[in-house]
Amino acid sequence: MTATRGQHMADEIRQQPAIFADLLAARDAIADVAAVVAQRRPRFALLAARGSSDHAALYAKYLVETLLQLPAGLASPSTTTLYGAQPDLTDVLLVSVSQSGGSPDLLEVTESARKQGALTVAVTNTADSPLVTAAELSVDVRAGREQAVAATKTYGATLLALYLLVDAVRGGTGEQAADLPDLAEQTLASGREAVDEAVGRYRFLERMVTTARGYSLATAHEAALKLAETSYLSARSYSGADLLHGPVAAVDADTAVLAVASRGRGGAAMREPLEAVAERGADVCAIGSAAQDVPATHRIPVPACAEELAPVLEILPVQQLALGLAQVRGFDPDNPRGLNKVTRTR
């Protein structure tokens, strides 16, 4: 293992508190976009994304449905790109989430939606991307160039940008997020020992289930992706509710369960499914501000914040865990095999 293996990923994880601070300082630009959205009064929201951005879009779906009380759905790009569907999207808000802004399918979806009457907003880390040109409005997540293939700082910044956008649409001032930079610093520092212990605990693991409910479900999905693409683990993610409907049968003493549980209704709802997997002998690692409140064999604490902002902090120790496991298993998380920074699909 070389000294530089995973160095880019490590650096980019550490950059996130400063990126959050910069994004909060630029909130006025996001509020300007939100003002247009609020004025247009959409009746429905669609979110289009792929990969890590799709998990950020799932988080935004919870935000839209809960904070704005609007129905929201995740778009299926192939209905446009492969099947040529052209639904009437009058008075619909389409938010396209892409770190690179260069995915051909998301570009086509955005262009088509705009022609069909949607108000289109691009949320991306590339301000001069084709996606920004295609959309009527855009939000810059301001994370700077990401060199590691595995998305870390762009994912965290996208979560915060989406929160600030939705919060501003409802007339909020972003005050709930004001302490996030400091809380992110605390999360990275205070959880380090517990993360290192988890790395040692799961070094030889081959199978993991990740699970959560509510806002944190996005974190569980992103955790499974990060572990699979950096450590080549067989990782599957489930809602805590769905876990009890069949997948729990595949959980046994040879399975580790990474459970995301933060204070609030979503974290409270995780107690029952975690009691069920604990009874089956699974090794449960709980991450979040409610980690101490759920059945677990190992815990990684996260400072408490408003429940709707918890995913911005929860993902940090997940990223540290994915980095550490990749390094100790002899892999390079900066350059996972078979992956490129921009995935082009249609």
Automatic annotation (TrEMBL):
This is Glucosamine--fructose-6-phosphate aminotransferase (Isomerizing). Keywords: Aminotransferase, Repeat, Transferase. GO terms for biological process: carbohydrate derivative metabolic process. Signal peptide: none annotated. Pfam families: SIS (PF01380). CDD domains: SIS_GlmS_GlmD_1, SIS_GlmS_GlmD_2. It is an enzyme of class 2 (transferase). PROSITE patterns: SIS (PS51464). PANTHER family: AMINOTRANSFERASE-RELATED (PTHR10937:SF8), GLUCOSAMINE--FRUCTOSE-6-PHOSPHATE AMINOTRANSFERASE, ISOMERIZING (PTHR10937). Its EC number is 2.6.1.16. It comes from Saccharopolyspora hordei. The keyword rRNA-binding does not apply. Residues 33-175, 195-336 form the SIS domain. GO terms for molecular function: carbohydrate derivative binding; glutamine-fructose-6-phosphate transaminase (isomerizing) activity.
